[in-house]
Amino acid sequence: MVQWSDQERAFIMEIFSKLDYELVGSTSLARCLIVYPWTQRYFGGFGNLYNAAAIMANPMVGAHGTVVLHGLDRAMKNMDDIKNTYTELSVLHSEKLHVDPDNFRLLGDCLTIVIAGQMGNSFSPEMQAAWQKFLSVVVSALCRQYH
């Protein structure tokens, strides 16, 4: 079980309170698909993903990015039991979707970049450290079924 300090919890809550889920989710997933084009293979049913402009304009990418952020919201609301909160998602991504688990970290990196851009100077190094810890726990929980 991960131990969270009161300050880490406060930072995570503050980040989520400032997120525009639709904008940040859409932009983060689109960035991931553009920067790491091999991740597109999991989104074959999303239509035109042939270039950056098409990806950025794709409503299915935007909608799924929002779903991802709402999934992260579940982790934030269950910080003391993220592993069990994500059991079903881990099974889904490993056994049905066969997602390469490294892609969770890549998306997390893109999400961090987008959040840093949105929050600017208020995304302090201490806040980022708490955020990176949070993402590490989430990624570990999602990868649980792979081990």
UniProtKB/TrEMBL annotation:
Domain named Globin: residues: 3-147
GO molecular function (one): organic acid binding
Keywords assigned by UniProt, alphabetized: Heme, Iron, Metal-binding, Oxygen transport, Transport
GO BP term (any one): hydrogen peroxide catabolic process
UniProt keyword annotation of Heme present: yes
Source domain of life: Eukaryota
InterPro entries found in the cross-reference section: Globin, Globin-like_sf, Globin/Proto, Hemoglobin_b, Hemoglobin_oxygen_transport
Transmembrane segments: none
Family annotation (Pfam families): Globin
Gene3D superfamilies from the UniProt entry: Globins
GO cellular component, one term: hemoglobin complex
Family: Belongs to the globin family.
Name this protein carries in UniProt: Globin domain-containing protein
